[in-house]
């Protein structure tokens, strides 16, 4: 090798280079063991698509494992898949016919891996559903078919496999053909073809063999050749979800991918949900071209500049001013659910619509069902109030902030939602309708969906008893397990909070960790905050005061007006802490705090678990019976990061202007609002609204 | 839009999603054809800029042409280049077959670099059509504390919605060209005029189809002396792309073991 060889080969750009052949993505779905992997092996082998040596390699692997030759080894790339003889995760492989290129997506049929089936199938333009003629329609056959419908796949063919096991009997095939066709039509899918095959022997796959000479329809390869790639929705109105706004080289570029329609320089656009308007000034490209483009269409990732400085952010949706996207704070959707804990009314989760993301609470569930049920179900037995894992149903969600979306029937690209539960995608579905009158819907449904007060009080008392005898780690795990919905832990980075956070992180509990940044905290508190995030590798959700309310407060009482009167101080606490807390806890079912009973006389009567009627949730004080000494000992033993102010006599740390150190022997909270009379030293976070502080 | 336009649009979308969702990103530059396309796509996504560091985890055993290419284009493309070394082979799992063990140095180097810089997201230029375990990858692929890939518990990913919430101590691998093929890479390189390392072109009847460490990467027989000829050859060939990468072929599961431990 010549060390002084040229480091590069210069290549002149050539815009004429294209890849003209259509590419179609096909997902192969069906119940476990109905022959998906065998069919894929057969297709690849008979179309001459296998790499050299692959067949020999597979034969050698089969022999080494003392098994007869298994086609599934081709796609089951993971050791555990080969060991167990099942496909765990979705795989993709390419092959070509004279007319087009294909990507075959092999989706696992095993119920445990339905999330992987969804992942694979969501990328497909068309689907091939396999049914074993001897075993017939099974749970996963139906669930997969229904998911195809919800994922928006409309091109479907059915292969009735293992015809060799029924001696290629035409009557058996016709019976299966009638049953599966009826089921698919029920789910809103019309099969393009139903094909009798034997993947093992090759009948009906590429060759029309004599064994199935009674079959008049296409072979598998002919059916695949008739599928078309999904096209971007060019004919629908413009929808451009905003991914980000960049400032590069003095340009303010709004970036995103056009979901549908087209955009042109000079168009008047409107931004949902704000409704603000502007005119498109340019469409930006790199490398810059001689003539900048004047329009862009569906499917393109673009950057545009506008004729005025609108406040636009990620999550906004751009449309043409004459065809606005509807927006609202509540919506109805038909969804599938993948998480192992069922989705119930009252569950709080993150809802994603396009690039928008907001918290939401399930306010109602209707028509929950298992698409895999064999029995023809009666509607009255279907009505359920929760959606189990791998089941489907209709939900209504109240959203924390307004989002823009279309009904799926109007625009598939902007008519879909994804549900994120505990930091992981857990379900998704089609928007049926956006409900614009959020107040009435959310209000009335929440009342009907909420747990009855007596039932909740009894539940709190039962939990209190069940968890009291346990250690801290067990208490936290037990509380998490007892609640279906979101749990919020509010931390101010005090000693107790740090110990709780340590346990939450050690156990990896699904708890939303939140802090209320009043804007007036000690510098040491911010340092502790950062140190804590680094130590535990998490980002703590910070909630801030409402900007308008804060500006009004400062305009009224001045920057340090809280020292003047108790009322002024409480107004400040309300705006900087109490109101943000309400938002922090919105939609949660449980609230974890670091309160201890011996912190003050006010706190002497707190319980481990109680009902918080103000925030409509269960409040959990897992350290209620700890002493300060026990907390200090634990923190020292486990090197938990602590606020350095504790060392300097600050025992209870709040906002900097309103906290001082306490002398030895003084009550713990004596340093909070020390200039005020009396023992009521609370900001209002931990007492009922309206009560004296 | 033709297929290359669609591929490009999807990759740009992925770059922008990662940039919006993650705090501290870097792009892994192996100096090969795939990561060069990846850098090009990043510049498209961010209008000529690459707004995160580009990191070369250097085994010290690359071909001289590769180092020359790196040093020239890091400057010309305005990259914020980070070069991080790999530990010696003695520091690597001795139960791995020899070439895999040598390749695993990169995994160890990557772990050290992650610990040093604290990145929460790494762009990696792997593709589904390269190798069977890569075919099972997600676009946003979470890794554990040690860079470990939990293949049994990958989160669902659909409709271009990616999982970006990180478990404690973990990082994400982001794969902007996962959906591309080897032919797509070459066709796009040709269309856009992206420079390449000459080792990819045939000389004396052999060329490198995939570039890695000089001692465990071998040229394959080929007459392709231009990109057009490479593309024509790929349409006809039935030899897998990584045939010249020794560590893939030592044992049935050697490449899977590398990947589970954090290899790309």
Q: What is the topological layout?
A:
The complex is a heterodimer of chains A (693) and B (264).
Chain A: E1 23-30, H1 36-46, H2 54-64, H3 79-84, E2 91-96, E3 101-106, H4 114-121, E4 126-132, H5 139-151, E5 155-161, H6 170-186, E6 191-196, H7 220-225, E7 240-248, E8 251-257, E9 262-264, E10 268-272, E11 276-284, E12 295-297, E13 301-306, E14 317-320, E15 327-337, E16 343-344, E17 348-353, E18 356-369, H8 379-382, E19 386-387, E20 392-404, E21 416-421, E22 424-435, H9 438-449, H10 453-468, H11 472-482, E23 487-490, H12 495-507, E24 512-516, H13 523-536, E25 541-543, H14 547-557, H15 566-585, E26 590-592, E27 609-612, E28 617-620, H16 628-637
Parallel strand pairs in A: 1-3, 1-4, 4-5, 5-6, 23-24, 23-26, 24-25, 26-28
Antiparallel strand pairs in A: 2-3, 7-8, 7-14, 8-13, 9-12, 10-11, 10-14, 11-13, 15-20, 15-22, 16-19, 17-18, 17-21, 18-20, 21-22, 27-28
Chain B: H1 3-21, E1 25-28, H2 33-45, E2 54-58, H3 64-76, E3 81-85, H4 98-117, E4 121-123, E5 140-143, E6 171-174, H5 182-192, E7 206-207, E8 220-221, H6 227-236, H7 254-260
Parallel strand pairs in B: 1-2, 1-4, 2-3, 4-6
Antiparallel strand pairs in B: 5-6, 7-8
Helix pairs in contact in B: 1-2, 5-6
């Amino acid at each position: 090798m010549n060390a002084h060889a040229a480091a590069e080969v210069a290549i002149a750009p050539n815009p004429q280079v294209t890849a003209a052949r259509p590419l179609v993505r096909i997902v192969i779905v069906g119940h476990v063991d109905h022959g998906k992997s065998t069919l894929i092996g057969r297709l690849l082998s008979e179309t001459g698509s296998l790499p050299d040596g692959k067949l020999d390699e597979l034969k050698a692997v089969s022999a080494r494992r003392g098994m007869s030759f298994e086609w599934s080894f081709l796609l089951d790339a993971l050791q555990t898949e080969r060991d167990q003889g099942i496909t765990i995760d979705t795989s993709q492989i390419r092959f070509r016919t004279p007319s087009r290129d294909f990507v075959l997506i092999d989706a696992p049929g095993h119920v445990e891996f339905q999330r992987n089936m969804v992942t694979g199938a969501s990328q497909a333009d068309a689907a091939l559903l396999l049914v074993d003629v001897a075993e017939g329609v099974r749970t996963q056959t139906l669930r997969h078919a229904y998911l195809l419908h919800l994922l928006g796949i409309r091109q479907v063919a059915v292969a009735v496999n293992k015809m060799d096991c029924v001696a290629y009997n035409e009557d058996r095939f016709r019976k299966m053909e009638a049953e599966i066709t009826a089921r698919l039509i029920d789910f809103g899918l019309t099969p393009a073809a139903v094909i009798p095959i034997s993947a093992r022997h090759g009948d009906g796959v590429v060759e029309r063999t004599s064994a199935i000479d009674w079959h008049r329809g296409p072979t598998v390869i002919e059916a695949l050749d008739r599928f078309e790639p999904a096209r971007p929705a060019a004919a629908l109105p413009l929808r451009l979800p905003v991914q980000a706004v960049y400032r590069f080289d003095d340009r303010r570029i709004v970036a995103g991918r056009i979901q549908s329609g087209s955009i042109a320089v000079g168009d008047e656009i409107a931004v949902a949900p704000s409704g603000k308007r502007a005119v498109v000034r340019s469409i930006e490209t790199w490398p810059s071209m001689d003539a900048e483009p004047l329009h862009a269409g569906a499917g393109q990732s673009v950057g545009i500049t506008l004729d005025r400085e609108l406040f636009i952010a990620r999550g906004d949706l751009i449309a043409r001013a004459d065809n606005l996207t509807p927006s609202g704070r509540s919506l109805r959707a038909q969804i599938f659910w993948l998480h192992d804990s069922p989705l119930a009314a009252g569950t709080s989760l993150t809802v994603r619509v396009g690039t928008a993301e907001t918290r939401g609470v399930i306010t109602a569930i209707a028509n929950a069902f298992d698409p895999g049920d064999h029995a023809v179900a009666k509607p009255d037995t279907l009505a359920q109030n929760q959606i189990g894992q791998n089941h489907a149903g209709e939900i209504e969600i109240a959203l924390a902030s307004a989002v823009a979306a279309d009904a799926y029937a109007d625009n598939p690209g902007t008519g879909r939602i994804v549900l994120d539960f505990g930091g992981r995608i857990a379900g998704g579905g089609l928007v049926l309708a956006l409900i614009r009158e959020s107040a009435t819907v959310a209000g009335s449904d929440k009342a009907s969906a909420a747990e009855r007060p007596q039932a909740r009080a009894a539940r709190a008392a039962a939990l209190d008893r069940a968890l009291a005898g346990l250690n801290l780690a067990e208490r936290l795990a037990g509380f998490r397990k007892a609640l279906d919905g979101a749990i919020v832990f509010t931390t101010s980075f005090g000693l107790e909070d740090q110990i709780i956070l340590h346990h939450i992180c050690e156990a990896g509990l699904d708890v939303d960790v939140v802090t209320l940044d009043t804007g007036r905290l000690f510098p040491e508190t911010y340092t502790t905050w950062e140190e804590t995030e680094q130590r535990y590798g998490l980002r703590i959700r910070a909630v801030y005061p409402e900007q308008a309310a804060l500006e009004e407060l400062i305009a009224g009482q001045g920057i340090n007006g809280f020292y003047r009167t108790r009322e002024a101080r409480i107004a400040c606490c309300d705006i900087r802490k109490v109101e943000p807390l309400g938002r922090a806890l919105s939609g949660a079912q449980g609230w974890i705090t670091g309160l201890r009973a011996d912190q003050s006389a006010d706190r002497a009567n707190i319980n481990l678990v109680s009902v918080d009627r103000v925030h409509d949730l269960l409040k959990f004080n897992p350290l209620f019976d700890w002493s300060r000494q026990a907390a200090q000992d634990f923190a020292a033993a486990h090197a938990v990061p602590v606020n350095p102010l504790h060392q300097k006599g600050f025992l209870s740390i709040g906002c900097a202007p309103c906290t001082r150190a306490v002398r030895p022997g003084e009550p713990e909270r004596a340093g909070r609002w020390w200039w005020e009379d009396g023992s009521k030293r609370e900001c209002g976070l931990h007492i009922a609204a309206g009560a004296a502080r | 839009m033709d297929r290359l336009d669609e591929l490009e649009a999807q990759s740009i979308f992925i770059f922008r999603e990662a940039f919006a969702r993650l705090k501290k990103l870097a792009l892994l530059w192996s100096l090969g054809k795939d990561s060069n396309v990846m850098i090009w796509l990043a510049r498209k996504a961010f209008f000529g800029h690459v707004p995160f560091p580009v990191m070369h985890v250097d085994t010290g055993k690359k071909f001289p042409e590769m180092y020359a290419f790196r040093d020239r284009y890091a400057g010309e493309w305005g990259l914020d280049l980070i070069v991080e070394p790999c530990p010696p082979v003695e520091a690597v799992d001795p139960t791995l077959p020899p070439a895999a063990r040598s390749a695993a140095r990169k995994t160890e180097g990557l772990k050290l670099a992650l610990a040093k810089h604290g990145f929460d997201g790494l762009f990696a230029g792997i593709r589904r059509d390269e190798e069977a375990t890569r075919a099972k990858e997600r676009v946003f692929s979470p890794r554990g504390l040690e860079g470990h890939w939990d293949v049994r518990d990958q989160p669902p990913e659909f409709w271009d919605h990616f999982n970006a919430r990180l478990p404690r101590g973990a990082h994400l691998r982001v794969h902007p060209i996962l959906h591309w093929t080897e032919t797509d890479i070459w066709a796009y390189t040709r269309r856009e005029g992206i420079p390449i390392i000459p080792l990819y072109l045939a000389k004396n009847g052999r060329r490198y189809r995939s570039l890695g460490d000089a001692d465990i990467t071998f040229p394959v027989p080929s007459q392709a002396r231009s990109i057009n000829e490479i593309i024509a050859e790929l349409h006809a060939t039935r030899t897998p792309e990584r045939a010249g990468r020794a560590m893939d072929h030592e044992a049935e599961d050697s490449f899977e073991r590398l990947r589970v431990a954090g290899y790309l």
